[in-house]
Design a protein that fits this description.
mainly beta, 5-stranded antiparallel sheet, 1 helix, binds thymidine-5'-diphosphate
Length: 135
């Protein structure tokens, strides 16, 4: 599947907490053009339900817990992001759903391109046809 789980470098100090960081090209292989984050979601809410034709994303959850359901029509995977040091890279043609396991989890995304509604596939049947042609 067109995904990777990466360790986000994290420096822990005994009394002052943690600092996590990643660097384009060193920790993942695309440049970042956009960063966004999702907040104020209640436990049990699902978002996502789409794939991207070209966009690559690094997703991480520094606060809380979110389950990511991934599907490339051949294989399905579930990954829980619940740790500031865990990142998930999702590349082209992967359908994703995201379930908030804890209210007010913060889901952050670094994306390879600007927002483009035409890059989204929001219909699952259309995704099956699209992914069948490119995988
Ligand atoms: P969407 O990507 O569907 O969110 P999720 O996958 O978390 O459910 O985006 C939700 C709305 O926000 C949709 O109307 C598109 C808009 N949007 C932007 O305008 N710019 C952005 O960078 C993003 C990510 C979304």
């Amino acid at each position: 599947m067109n995904i990777d789980i990466i360790d986000i470098k994290t420096i822990t100090t005994e009394k002052e907490g943690q600092l996590s960081f990643f660097e384009a090209d060193k920790d993942f292989d695309f440049d970042i053009k956009r960063i966004y984050y999702i907040t104020k979601v209640s436990e049990g809410v699902k978002r996502g339900a789409h794939a991207h034709k070209n966009l690559k994303q690094l997703i991480w959850c520094p606060i809380g817990s979110v389950k990511i359901y991934l599907d490339n029509i051949r294989e399905k995977r579930e990954i829980i992001l619940d740790n500031p040091a865990k990142g998930l890279v999702i590349k082209e043609s992967v359908w994703r759903d995201m379930l908030w396991l804890k209210s007010d989890s913060v889901l952050c995304v670094a994306a390879s391109d600007y927002y483009d509604a035409d890059d989204y596939i929001r219909d699952y049947d259309e995704f099956i046809k699209y992914a069948g042609g490119v995988i």
